[in-house]
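User: Please fill in residues for this 309-position structure.
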C-alpha cells in the first residue's frame, strides 16, 4: 500500500477544508468480506474516491443498505451507516433524508434486494423523486444465498434454482427507472472504475433520485456474466456522444443488450422538483428536522423513546 497522501480538491460544500481529507479518510475499520475478485470491491473504492473528490466529510454522508452481499458495504466505509431490512433501504433512506435534508444520503444494495423484494419501494421512491443516490450492484444472481436466479438474470440462465434454465424474462432497470420518474439514470461497470467514479460523482451531486446500476460480476456463482464476458461488450455512452436529455434515445439505448451494452449516463433532467423541494416545512429557515426542538417536555420525550425501545 502506498504511503503517499493525496489531498482533496476544492470542496463541494461550504466549511469543508480539503487539507483535512485523504482517500484513507473513507476507509472503514472492517475489511470487506467479499469473495476475492468480487466486483463490489471496485464499487466500494469508486464510492470512496467520489466522496474524496467531492470534498465531502464522513459526517456529511449517510450510507443505507438492505440485505445481501453488497448490502454489507456500509460497514466497510467511514461514514454514517445503516444496515436495514431486506428490500427496505430506500424507505429508511427517505425518512433519513427528510429528517436531515443536509445529509448526502446514498443507498447501496444488489439486484435481488432492490429490484426483487424491494421493487415496490424502488418504484415509489423514483416517482417521488427523493433526493438520494441509489447504487445497485447488479450481478444477475443471488450471491448471499449461494446462487439462485435474480430479477435481472437472463432467460435460459442455469443456476441452483433453475438447473434446466430460467424461463422468466428479466427486469431491465434502466428504462424502468427512466419511465418511473428517476431524474438521473446511469450504469457503470466494475471493470471501468475511473468511469464509475465520474458517474457516482454526478449522481451524488444531482438534485433528485439518482440510480446507478453497476455491472458487478459475482465471480463465485455467476459463470455467465463475467469480466471476460462484459469487457468486449460494454461501450461508454459519453464516448459515443449520447445526449442524456433525449428521452426516447435514452429508452432506446437502455433496452440495448447483446454484442454491445451501453454504460454511462442514459437520462438526466433538472426541471422536476425533488420531494424535499416540495415539502415547505424543510425550508422554513429552522434547519433540518433532526436538529429542531421536539416541542414536548423531556418526560414526554423519554416516555416515547422508552416505548419504542
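Assistant: Residues filled in for all 309 positions:
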Amino acid at each position: 500500500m502506498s504511503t503517499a497522501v493525496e489531498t482533496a480538491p476544492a470542496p463541494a460544500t461550504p466549511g469543508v477544508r480539503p487539507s483535512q481529507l485523504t482517500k484513507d479518510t473513507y476507509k472503514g475499520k472492517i475489511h470487506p468480506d467479499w469473495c476475492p475478485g468480487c466486483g463490489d470491491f471496485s464499487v466500494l473504492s469508486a464510492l470512496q474516491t467520489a466522496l474524496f473528490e467531492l470534498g465531502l466529510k464522513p459526517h456529511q454522508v449517510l450510507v443505507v443498505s438492505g440485505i445481501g452481499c453488497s448490502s454489507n458495504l456500509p460497514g466497510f466505509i467511514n461514514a454514517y451507516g445503516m444496515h436495514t431490512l431486506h428490500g427496505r433501504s430506500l424507505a429508511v433512506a427517505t425518512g433519513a433524508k427528510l429528517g436531515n435534508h443536509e445529509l448526502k444520503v446514498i443507498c447501496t444494495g444488489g439486484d435481488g434486494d432492490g429490484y426483487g423484494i424491494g421493487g415496490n419501494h424502488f418504484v415509489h421512491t423514483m416517482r417521488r423523486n427523493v433526493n438520494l443516490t441509489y447504487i445497485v450492484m447488479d450481478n444477475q444472481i443471488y450471491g448471499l444465498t449461494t446462487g439462485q436466479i435474480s430479477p435481472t438474470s437472463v432467460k435460459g440462465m442455469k443456476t441452483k434454482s433453475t438447473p434446466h434454465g430460467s424461463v422468466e424474462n428479466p427486469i431491465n432497470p434502466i428504462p424502468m427507472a427512466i419511465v418511473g420518474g428517476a431524474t438521473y439514470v446511469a450504469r457503470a461497470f466494475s471493470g471501468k472504475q475511473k468511469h464509475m467514479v465520474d458517474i457516482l460523482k454526478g449522481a451524488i451531486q444531482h438534485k433528485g433520485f439518482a440510480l446507478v446500476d453497476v455491472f458487478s460480476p459475482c465471480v463465485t456463482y455467476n459463470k455467465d456474466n463475467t469480466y471476460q464476458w462484459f469487457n468486449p461488450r460494454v461501450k461508454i455512452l459519453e464516448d459515443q456522444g449520447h445526449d442524456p436529455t433525449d428521452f426516447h434515445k435514452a429508452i432506446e439505448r437502455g433496452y440495448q443488450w447483446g454484442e454491445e451494452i451501453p454504460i454511462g449516463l442514459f437520462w438526466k433532467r433538472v426541471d422536476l422538483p425533488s420531494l424535499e423541494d416540495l415539502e415547505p416545512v424543510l425550508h422554513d429557515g429552522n434547519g433540518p428536522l433532526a436538529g429542531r426542538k421536539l416541542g414536548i417536555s423531556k418526560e414526554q420525550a423519554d416516555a416515547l423513546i422508552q416505548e419504542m425501545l
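For context: The radius of gyration is 20 Å.
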